[in-house]
Structures are given as structure tokens and as C-alpha cells.
Design brief:
Seven copies of one chain form a homoheptamer.
Chain A: E1 3-5, E2 9-14, H1 17-23, E3 25-26, E4 36-43, E5 48-49, E6 52-53, E7 63-66, E8 72-76, E9 79-85, E10 89-93
Antiparallel strand pairs in A: 2-4, 2-9, 4-7, 5-6, 7-10, 8-9
Subunit structure (chains A, B, C, D, E, F, G): Heptamer of 7 subunits arranged in a ring. Interacts with the chaperonin GroEL.
Protein name (chains A, B, C, D, E, F, G): Co-chaperonin GroES
GO molecular function (chains A, B, C, D, E, F, G): ATP binding; metal ion binding; protein folding chaperone; protein-folding chaperone binding; unfolded protein binding
Chain lengths: 94, 94, 94, 94, 94, 94, 94
């Protein structure tokens, strides 16, 4: 079973604290406001603006930083995911 | 009798809890905020932007996740439906 | 005497409870929020966007569902009507 | 002396209660919210959108329904008028 | 010395009560909300929309009605002026 | 060292009270709301709208009126400047 | 490891107080509102508007002034950065 996000939405999976430590990223600020690291698991086809589909900038398996409270949490086959708009993704971490 | 949604609206039918269990999706968060699973039963012709009709991304019989409080509830021939804008649909579940 | 709505406005006449029963539609939710069924009696020429007139999706004698508190009530020759924007019409019922 | 409204503005003159009775229109709702009947006395040249002037839909001597609190009241040569945007006119009454 | 308003701004000079009486205009409503009569003394080059400059509709020496609290008051060489956007001008009085 | 404002931003330097007296401009209203006179010291390249850069209307050394609380104060090499968007400039004074 | 900001986002590194003194910039106002000086360390590909990507105006190693509370703080490999939209950058300092 798969989740296919619509338009410019993206499905991501939060990376655990251990992974975060390995990648060397420590997010500052209070827990409520700090962005989180995640891996992209599904990417929508892109929004349509003025009749043209806008190509998405992220792709599956990208590591990304996103605003913690952006998007909607869903659990699928025992795993938790977040569905959010690509614009709520701050950056790709390589 | 049929409901034909206008523009970019979609008519969906909520999937019952049993079906949700079968599909393996468990929606997290409080009952108030969690998205719901539904089946598309009617799709509008698409919104018109800059004089062009935008093709819809969902089609009849798609299983979708949508924001629980999006749209308007109606009951037709004894069945309950929700009429909502396609943009309130988060993803298609396959 | 006739009412000619401007731009993308539509004039509709509420359908009585008996007619609603016949059509098989029962609208759920509290009385305050539930949509209502009505018949279209006049349709504006369509809004003009980017210099082009957008064709209307509803036509006279369509049965429609609309948000109860959308639009403005007027009484003409003893009959009550509602003038509202087409975007406040949720769907056509056939 | 004349008032020439700018862009998509219209100058209208409220029709008195007697005229309203003759035309057969009775406006429902509380006095505060009900629309009013008026006659168009001057029409702006139309707004300019994307470099093109949008033709006005109302013309001088049209009878119109408008939202009571839309626009601005002015008195000219002893007569009271309202200057409002065409979009605040709900419909033409014929 | 001159004030050259930018874009779609206009510099106007309020007309005194005596002049208002001569022109036959009496503005109704409370003093706080009533529009005022003024003479245009400088006109901006027009706003640029989609790369094209929109021609202004008012010209120097036009008598205009404007919303009393629109714009900004300035005093230049002993005279008081108002700088406002053309859209805050309701109509030209001829 | 120089400040290069981005897009449609402008760097201005407030003119002192004495200079204001010389130019003959006295700004009315309370100190909090009155616009101020300034000299343009740097001009951005212009905003990009629909893929085209919009040419700026002010140039270095123009005397301008601007809304007192628009923009951001910075001090550079001992001098105080304001960085603001061109749209917050009301007019050029010649 | 690198942070690649999306669209029109920029990653910047705050400049310390000593560097600020060397550059001669002293930012006025209360600490809460004053803009800050920073160095650009990564630049997004630019936003897409009407199907065209808008070229970014800042580049890596530019010294910039930005609104203190704009953007999101992140710490990467022990260094603190801010991810913000280019529009929250006021000016380039040369």
C-alpha cells in the first residue's frame, strides 16, 4: 500500500534522534519551534500554476529539514508519516 | 439521483473503521484533528484558472485521506457524503 | 419583472421541505450549518478574469445544494429568492 | 454639475419606498442587512485589469439591488446619491 | 518647489467649505465618515502592473471626492495637501 | 563600505529639521504619524514581477517624503539610515 | 555535509559582534527589533513564478543585513545557521 500525495504535497518520515546525532545536526531553540529532520518517502506531482505543472524540488530519499508543526501526521502499516506542502520544507541536507 | 460537484469540488464517502483497519492505516493525533479515509464518489469538472480548466487529480473510486473538518456533510438516499474542495484532500491511498 | 444577477452571481429559490423529502436528500448537521437545496432561477453572465468571461457552470432550473448562510435574501412578487455567488453553490443534484 | 465615478465605481440614487412597492420587490431580513433598490445615475469607465479595461455591466437608468451599507453617501444639488463599486451591486431588476 | 507623487499616488488640496457650498455638494453622514471635495494638484505616473504602466484617470485641476481619512497630510510652502492613492478617490465632480 | 538594498528597497538618510525648514515643508499631524523628508542614498535594482524587473522610480540624491514608521533603521560608519521599500515612499520633492 | 535551501530560501551565518565593529555598522533600535549582519553560506535555486525560475540576488559569501527574527535557527556540525527567505534580507553590505 502506498500514499500518493496530491499537488505539491510531500510524505516524509521523521528521522530518530540517533540518526540526527550521526548527521551532526542539532536543532536549536525550544522543542516547540525547532525544525525537524526527516526523509522524503513520497512526492506529489507538483502544483499547477497558470496551467503549468511546477516540477518538485525534493525527491524520494532526500533528507530534509521541516517546520515541526507543519503538515498532518498519519500512521500507515505501523509507521508514522507526515504529509506536508513542499513549501514547509526548509532545506535538503546532504 | 446524483450529486455533481461544481468546479474543483469532490464528493467523498467516509470509509468505516473496519475498512480502515483492513487497509492498515491508523490515523494518529486526537480524534478532532486526525485526517480520515474516504472513497471518492463524484468529481467536479475542475476549477477554471486564467481561462483554462485545471484537470482534477482524483477520480471516482480513489481512496483518499482528507482533513476531518473540511467540507460539508450531506445525506443522500440514506447515505452520508462529504462535499469538499480537492485541495482539502491530502493524498490518495493505493 | 426579472432579476438579472451580475457577474458570477446566481438567483435561486429554496426548495420546500416536502420537495426535499421527495428528492431523498436529508441534510445532516445542525440546522445552522447544513446546506440547503434550491432551484436556480437566474444566472449571471459570468465573472471576467484576465479579460475573458468565465462561462457559468449552473443553468436555470438546476437543482443545487448551497451553504445556508451564503448570499442575500430578497422577496420579489411575493416569492423569496437568494442572490449568491456561484462559488457558494456546492453541487448540482440530478 | 456631474459626478463621474472612477474605475469600476457607480453612482446610484436610492428608490423610495413607494417605488419599491410598485415594483413588487419586498426585501426581507432586518432593516440593517436587507439590500436596497436604486437607479444608476453614473457609471465609471471600468477597472483596468492586466492592462485591459473591463467593460461595466450596469448602465445609466438600470434599476439595481445593492447591499445597504456598501459605498459612500453624498448629496449633490439637494439630491442624495451613493457611490459604490459595481461589485457591491447584486443584480439588475427589469 | 514641487511634490511629485510616486506610482498611482495623487496630491490634492482640500476645497474650503465656501467652495463646497458654491458647487452645490453637501456631504451627508457624520463628519468622521463623509467624503471631502478637493482639487488635484499633482498626479503620479501611474502604477506598473504586469510590466505596463497604467494610465491615471485623474489630472491636475480635477475636482474630486475622496475618503476623508485616506492618505497623508503634508504642508508645503504654507499650504496643506493630501497625498493619497488614486483608488481612494471616489469620483470626479464636473 | 556600501549598503546595496535588494529588490525594490531603498536606503535613505533623514533630513534634519533645519533642512526641512529651508525646503519650506512643514509636516502636519502628530509627530507619530507625520511623514518625514529624506534623501535617497542607495536604490535597489527593482522587484521582479512576472519575470521582468520593474525599473525604480526614485534615484540617488532624490529628496523624498516617507512614512515615519516604514522601514528599518541602521547606522553605518556613524551615520543613520533607513532601509525601506519604494512603495513606502509617498513622493519626490523637487 | 551541506544544507541546500529550497526555492528562494537562503542559509546565513550570523557575524559576531567583533566583526560588526570592524565593518563599522552599528544597528540602532532596541535589541529585539534591530537587524543583524550575517554572511551567506548557501543560496536556494530561486522561486518559480509563472513557470519561470527567478534568479537569486544574493550569492555565497555576501555580507547581508537581515531582520533578526526572520527565519529558523539550525545548528549543523557545531555551527549555528539561519534559514530564511531572500525577501527577509534587507541589503547587501560591501
Amino acid at each position: 500500500m502506498r500514499i500518493k500525495p496530491l499537488a505539491d504535497r510531500v510524505v516524509i518520515k521523521r528521522l530518530e534522534a540517533e540518526e540526527k546525532t550521526k548527521s551532526g545536526i542539532v536543532l536549536t531553540g525550544s522543542a516547540k519551534e525547532r525544525p525537524q529532520e526527516a526523509e522524503v518517502v513520497a512526492v506529489g506531482p507538483g502544483a499547477i500554476v497558470d496551467g503549468k505543472r511546477i516540477e518538485m524540488e525534493v525527491k524520494v530519499s532526500d533528507k530534509v529539514l521541516f517546520s515541526k508543526y507543519a503538515g498532518t501526521d498519519v500512521k500507515l502499516d505501523g509507521e508514522e508519516y507526515v504529509i506536508l506542502k513542499q513549501d514547509d520544507i526548509l532545506a535538503i541536507v546532504e
